[in-house]
Amino acid sequence: MPDIVFILLIFFMVTTVLKKIKLKVHINYPKAKNIEKIEQKRLISYIYVGPRRLGAGKYGKTQIQIDNAIVDMNDISSIESNKLNQQPKLIVSIRMDKNTHTGVLIDIQKQLQDAGALRINYSSKPENSGGSSSSSM
What we know:
Blueprint: H1 2-15, E1 31-32, E2 44-55, E3 58-66, E4 69-71, H2 76-86, E5 91-96, H3 102-115, E6 120-126, E7 133-136
Parallel strand pairs: 1-6, 2-5, 5-6
Antiparallel strand pairs: 2-3, 3-4, 6-7
């Protein structure tokens, strides 16, 4: 019996994916009524958009973060194109602060279109609760 428990423990340790992303931007999710949850989290590439965290509760100008790096708008296309080459079924999830200007979202969408990333998801919070979810398009 201890052998089986030990083997199961090793199996779950090997197959578990740990979140290693440290957010450098602040995200205050917009609220939505109709939300759909994505089950396959491994097929998602996250783009975080919001004011840069400066520390002590202060925030700077709007920045774009992919993985653990702050990136320039013009770099999004090449980054996501490389990810799509590795994983053709990739979904790009945009997690944007609700106070960010819509023009930033439009520019990101153009970059994603140039990269061939046409499966886009927009993250939001349900209107009646505090947890975050995703709305897929």
